[in-house]
Amino acid sequence: MGNDMDGNKGNDVIDLATFRALQDSAGADFVTELVDAYLDEAPRMLETLRSSLAARDQDAFRRAAHSLKSNSMTFGATALAAIARNLELTTREVVAQGDARVLDAAAGEQQRVAAALQELTNA
After folding, report:
1. Residue 41's closest CA among 75, 64, 74?
2. What domains sit in the chain, N to C, each tagged with a CATH number?
3. DSSP letter for each residue of 65-98
4. From CA 53, how far away is CA 113, in angstroms rounded?
5. Is the distance from CB of 48 to CB of 87 less than 8 angstroms?
6. Digits of tens for pLDDT over the chain (123 positions)?
7. How many whole angstroms from its chain centre is CA 28?
8. Is the pTM of this model over 0.90?
């Protein structure tokens, strides 16, 4: 039970109730299009977080964290949204420290979210 092969992989990465509600309201085909756009955009948001951190650009960092948070919540990626929310709320401190390792959790979770969303939309 709960292994990757039983179709429940998204359970620990994606809130399935949120995802299914989105599919019910917007339609599965449209949600698949949204997921495809998110899968293209989320890595770009992470790259913007990295580059704005390196450049010490608080505004760009905060905007990227906010976008990643909001977009992740749309699909029920609550852990990634929480990580991004924390980055958004602590932008000043994170950018001042300039330590890119703070983004490792977001990058790892984004990869898990991408895999779960692909599985859910290809099911």
Report:
1. 64
2. 4-122 (1.20.120.160)
3. HHHHHHHHHHTT-HHHHHHHHHHHHTHHHHHHHT
4. 23
5. no
6. 333 333 444 468 999 999 999 999 999 999 999 999 999 999 999 999 999 999 999 999 999 999 999 999 999 999 999 999 999 999 999 999 999 999 999 999 999 999 999 999 986
7. 20
8. no
